[in-house]
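I am writing to request your help with a piece of structural work I have in hand. I am sending you one protein, given as its amino acid sequence and as whole-number tokens for its backbone shapes. Kindly check, if you would, that the fold set down in the tokens agrees with what the sequence suggests. You will find the record immediately after this paragraph:
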Amino acid sequence: MGGFTLWVVVGLIMAAEFVNGWTDAPNAIVTVVATRAVKPQTAVGIAVVGNMIGAFYGRAVAETIGTEVVKAEAINLVTLGAALVAILLWSTAASCFGIPTSESHALLAGLAGAGLATAGPAAWIPAGWKKIMLGLVISVLFGAGGGFGLGLVVKLLGAGWPREKRDRVFRALQVVTAGGMALSHGSNDGQKFIGILTLTLVLAGILPAFRVQPWVIILCSLVMGAGTSVGGWRIIEKVGSRMVKLEPDQGLAAQTAAAASILLASGFGIPLSTTHTINTALMGAGATRGLSAVNWGIVKELVAAWLFTFPVCGLIGYLTAWLLARL
């Protein structure tokens, strides 16, 4: 039974990593597609490669997820399986409506709920949750503030240039920052599932202590890359074309601000939502043309999905763990 449970949990991790690449990684390329800096198929290729490379960027986020969110001695494989069910149900449902969700918050909420059902509040580690709250601040404030500030700077730099030259230069620079955005996504979101898989191996007794193995990184990066190759076109269309009508200079500013914020957080082992970061950066960059340049109706949809993620995924994680423990 233990071996069967292990394989089920590993399968759920791979499914969640695939969904992460499918529904979340498209945020890394939304701006280059919306501004027509590169063709969609080329953008997907950039996202696949960047995400896979980014997964090798340190171990800090993986260690935070695996050792600082819930106590390993208080949970079991069923707890992890329940958390992963929450991610899969929530993210897949939202993607059907083209709404980008935060797999980060879905994972954390699922872990919190499943851990609560397994061992009560004692399963939570306060220090890790402080990092998570800090990540929320970074994703929103640094994303929006950075996108707006860099948007003004880039706009000033391009002032006086002929429209054709300005767009050509900024589109070329966007290709570079798109790679950086994809790499930053892999460095944070990719690392989260690396941490979960490593924790699974510890709970199963395969690893004596939490230590990320190279083959775990390779496996997770390949699966995330496969998910990214699916494209997530509905999400790209909603965020990149309907939420903000992006110009190349705004796309460049948003990508740069988001990638810098995410890489900074990854370096300190702070898990944050790459979805929140790039979308708030897009709002900030778009607002440089005035508040009316942002479709606030779409923004309300996104914010509603973000707000519901924690309670819904927490409840799914709790109920799934509670039910499985009684089967």
Remarks:
- The first helix runs from residue 2 to 23.
- The chain has a mean pLDDT of 88.
